[in-house]
Predict the 3D structure of the following.
Amino acid sequence: MTDHAVETPASPESRGAGVSPAHAACPVPRVLAWHAPAASLRREDDALDLIVAARAQDAEWIAVDVATLHEDFFRLHTGAAGAIAQKLVNYGFKLAVVGDIEPWLADSVALRAYVRESNRGGHVRFVATVDALRR
């Protein structure tokens, strides 16, 4: 069973000030924080549950914990990362991979390049925390 919720990270302007993030000067993205069993997100078809949940919650970003991703996601030659990311982007969502990916980066020059280029773009980000999406 999956557990997920839309999170709107608090902006610096709204913390403790009684102002909701929706009223902050800078728009804060709506994020579906997806929690599922370890390694359950493996193929493009596995992303369909994320799409349905994100649509229902009116989310802009889908934040997936590193542990939720199958190891094939980090082996670029499998095509899993590209297929999953492309599926989400095609449906109008952005993907955030949340957590420590250092062990995977240490073993792959190609993955380091993919992460670097993804983080420069606007559709896929690799971040340490959900709050990092605000930056």
